[in-house]
């Protein structure tokens, strides 16, 4: 059965069946012209939208449907996390090729709704339409944060330490593995790959999971905002180099990054090295790490460490903000200018 | 120059250049991980998203770029109007084919931003990405309304009068004209059609404008909500029959529609009749009329008339809500069941 066999109403009913009961702040949910929510008092509302397009942001050859749904929402949750906002409502808009299997449609919705439930985010509405081309998923999220606690990219000051959460480079290494495996598989066998491909080692699987099922750092972002540990904050969806440059520009500071301090997992280092690539360069350029990059004043160091402990996410000091402008990489005792590498031509292929 | 020659940043800068200064309720606008807005106190927030896809919802053969942008936003504003909400913020997400001309990109943004300014809606953020297929535009809007004033589809009661704003059928007649003109033009000349095609009469142009540049009834919706004139309300994006059915279902009432009362413009009647089509059937089925369909209690009739006068939009009583279920069409002294006609198969071509 493909989605072309069903009506929009049928498809909406399949989504509704997966949703928990409406929370009290949702006077009107799915089924009217628009959703109506009641924001909390004295809280700002944070809005974000992200689109993922088949063939650009995901490849159904190695992304199972629930992974597609998970990733479509994770991108947005990561943006809320970077603002220090607690997730609240989501709108799900999809342009669907008529030939899409209904099972795959259900799988996409399941992946998204499962991740939403983990973060107490409620799907309050959306839009379904046909696509004569690729599958396009567009998710809008809203979140709330107190006015004085919003984390922006512009709050860094010279002397601040620069931290990153979790690990970087794992998603990029995982994507490369998935692409290689899919390529070799497709030449011999037409069946769809999944992550439980038996030829992947445990280390490999850790890398592919980092790409397929990223965990947006929502709790860490909220805690860093609440205890005012972070000055500036951004998520790394477009890569570490890009993130460092954007904070430096928005905050008008320089940033020096220590190559040796970067938390690149051993498995990712090995994977990059086996292909003759420099692990540091790869980890700096790689997108798809839904980690947070943030700056911390000297006297707020303990608060940052406390937030990380409470969130259960390791954080690593990878550099510092400097008075003089420019972004540099410190490596083997030398400082070299670091390019942003995130500013790819719009038409060119990019990892995210 | 095509969008493939520019970076995402270049394109965002072109959008920002068209925006008015940020209002006071927008602490963080375009350029951070997410936008931050400050909703008013004691007001509910209304959220809506709509996607338009090239080849499904619009045809660039006869929709100039500013029309595409206008329509992408009009769909959403119409949803806010149907809830009685005053527009506030919009997020603009686009999936762009690399070969799209930058002039066309600019034109789309202009059409959208111009309509936004007319309704005091501010573009606060969005997302741009590549599309390997059609142009996809996804607009999310937020609006505000007082809790007791929200208009839903569920507020109709037996005995209420049923009203429609403006005219119906004009957009459908206009679309048919545009398609015919485009077909005949394309066989002789490859150049792009615009609405000022000299072969269209004044009447024709009124119809094509109804399709190309619909005016969402935002002010009327807000006024109907404020003076509590309307019980139930819906917008007619999916057609009058569909709207009547949806109010009847959500409110658990029957609705009788008087065929002779339908405000179908003479030019549209003539256009339908010249193709051997029944004007009433066409107007009932036709989508793309961004009018409001609403119900009014007997004692609130004056309030509804006052709201319409203040908004400067004619309203027409086209029927009434009945105790017994079912939707019927009264015509030439007979009552016949009216099908919803809006529930087309998801894969099938539909007017909107």
Lay out the secondary structure.
The structure is a homodimer of 352-residue chains.
Chain A: H1 8-16, E1 35-37, E2 43-53, H2 65-83, E3 86-96, H3 102-118, E4 122-130, E5 136-146, E6 161-165, H4 170-188, H5 202-212, H6 218-226, E7 233-235, H7 240-251, E8 254-258, H8 266-274, H9 279-285, E9 292-296, H10 301-311, E10 315-322, E11 327-331, E12 334-337
Helix pairs in contact in A: 2-3, 2-6, 4-5, 4-8, 6-10
What is the helix content of chain A? 25-40%
What is the H-and-E element order of chain A? HEEHEHEEEHHHEHEHHEHEEE
Number of helices of chain A: 10
> What gross morphology of chain A would you assign?
globular
- Oligomer status: homodimer
The number of distinct β-strands of chain A equals 12
Proportion of beta-strand residues of chain A: 15-25%
Q: State the distance separating the first and last CA atoms of chain A.
A: 31 Å
Main pleated-sheet profile of chain A: 7 strands, mixed
**Strands of the biggest beta sheet of chain A: in what spatial order?**
7-9-6-10-8-11-12
Please, could you describe this protein's structure?
By secondary structure, chain A is α+β, with helices and mostly antiparallel strands. Chain A is built from 10 helices and 12 strands. Chain A has a 7-stranded mixed β-sheet. In chain A, helix 2 (65-83) runs parallel beside helix 6 (218-226). Mean pLDDT of chain A is 89; it is low at 188-196 and 347-352. Strand 2 of chain A pairs antiparallel with strand 1 of chain B.
């Amino acid at each position: 059965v493909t989605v072309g066999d069903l009506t929009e109403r049928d498809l909406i009913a399949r989504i509704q069946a997966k949703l928990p009961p409406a929370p009290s702040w949702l006077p009107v949910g799915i089924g009217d012209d628009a959703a109506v929510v009641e924001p909390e008092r004295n809280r700002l509302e944070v809005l974000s939208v992200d689109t993922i397009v088949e063939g650009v942001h995901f490849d159904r050859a190695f992304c199972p449907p629930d992974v597609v749904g998970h990733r479509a929402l994770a991108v947005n949750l990561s943006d809320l996390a970077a603002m220090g906002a607690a997730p609240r409502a989501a709108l799900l808009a999809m342009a669907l090729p008529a030939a899409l299997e209904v099972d795959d449609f259900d799988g996409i919705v399941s992946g998204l709704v499962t991740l939403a439930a983990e973060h107490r985010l409620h799907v309050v509405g959306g839009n379904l339409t046909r696509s004569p081309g690729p599958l396009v998923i567009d998710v809008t999220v809203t979140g709330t944060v107190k006015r004085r606690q919003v984390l922006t990219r512009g709050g860094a000051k010279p002397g601040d330490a620069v931290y990153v959460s979790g690990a970087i480079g794992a998603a990029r290494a995982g994507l490369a593995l998935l692409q290689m495996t899919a390529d070799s598989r497709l030449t011999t066998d037409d069946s769809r790959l999944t992550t439980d491909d038996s030829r992947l080692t445990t280390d490999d699987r850790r890398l592919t999971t980092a790409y397929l099922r990223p965990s947006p750092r929502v709790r860490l972002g909220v805690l860093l905002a609440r205890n005012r540990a972070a000055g500036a904050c951004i998520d790394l969806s477009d890569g570490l180099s890009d993130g460092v440059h954007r904070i430096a520009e928005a905050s008008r500071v320089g940033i020096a990054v220590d190559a040796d301090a970067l938390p690149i997992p051993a498995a990712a280092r090995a994977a990059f090295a086996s292909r003759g690539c420099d692990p540091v360069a790869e980890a700096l350029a790689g997108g798809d790490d839904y980690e947070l990059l943030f700056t911390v004043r000297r006297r707020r160091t303990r608060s940052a460490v406390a937030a990380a402990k409470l969130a259960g996410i390791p954080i690593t000091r990878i550099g510092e903000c400097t008075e003089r402008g420019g972004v540099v990489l410190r490596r083997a005792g030398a400082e070299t200018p670091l390019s942003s590498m995130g500013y790819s031509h719009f038409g060119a292929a990019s990892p995210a």
